[in-house]
Amino acid sequence: MPEAGAPRPAARSPYAEGALHSEVERFYARQVQLLGEGDLDRWALTFTEDAVFAQEAQAGRVWAGNAPSERRGRAAIVAAARGAVAARREAAAVRRYLIGMLRLDPGADGTVRTTYRALLLQTPKGGPPEVYLSTTGRDVLVREDGAWRVRHRINSHDNAPAAGGGEPTRKDHTHG
């Protein structure tokens, strides 16, 4: 029990947490829409210049088969995405990214660690939508110039060897 007259710790406002959650949800909505629309120049800007994007995936499912599984730097990340988007366009397929079950862990340093589930639906030309992929994403977000950006992402495909149903196989100090 605090001494009489001692300052009380500031209460965490559920509204501030709700506002942060909403802000991060909007960030992800914008990011996946840019990717789905193939607007890779703008999508690239949702990552820091020195970002890392790693995938835990089956062989041939990393960046539509253009491995390696880890890309370092915005330029390398967008180059890999360009290959995947080009392959999808060549196949005349439409892909949608659904993000949900978002958990946030705000850091004292201003970063936000997130964990989420992503479902990728793909519709071939003239065909029915199909589940393309189910993943667990773990990001470290930072604010740069007033906007959220991904500094580090690990995307664990649920069907990856030893993934354990989307549980991360990679132990990474940046994700706790």
Number of helices: 3
CATH topology: Nuclear Transport Factor 2, Chain: A
Shape: globular
Whole-Å distance between the termini? 31 Å
Strand order of the largest sheet: 2-1-6-5-4-3
* Count of spatially separate domains: 1
Alpha-beta content class: alpha+beta
Helical percent range?
Answer: 25-40%
H/E topology pattern: HHEEHEEEE
The CATH architecture can be given as Roll
Note down, in words, how this protein is organized.
There is one protein chain. The protein is an alpha+beta fold and 176 residues long. It has a single domain (14-175), classed as Roll (Nuclear Transport Factor 2, Chain: A). Helices cover 26% and strands 36% of the residues. The chain has three helices and six strands; from the N terminus they run ααββαββββ. A six-stranded mixed beta sheet has the order 2-1-6-5-4-3, covered by helices on one side. Strand 3 (94-106) and strand 4 (112-123) form a beta hairpin. The longest helix has 23 residues, at 14-36. The radius of gyration is 18 Å and the shape is globular. Mean pLDDT is 84; it is low at 163-173.
Which features characterize this protein?
176 residues, alpha+beta, Nuclear Transport Factor 2, Chain: A, 3 helices, globular
Summarize the structure.
The protein has 176 residues and is α+β, with helices and mostly antiparallel strands. The chain is built from three helices and six strands; from the N terminus they run H-H-E-E-H-E-E-E-E.
SSE layout:
Elements (H helix, E strand, L loop, with lengths): L13 H23 L3 H5 L2 E10 L13 E3 L1 H17 L3 E13 L5 E12 L6 E15 L2 E11 L19
Parallel strand pairs: 1-6
Antiparallel strand pairs: 1-2, 3-4, 4-5, 5-6
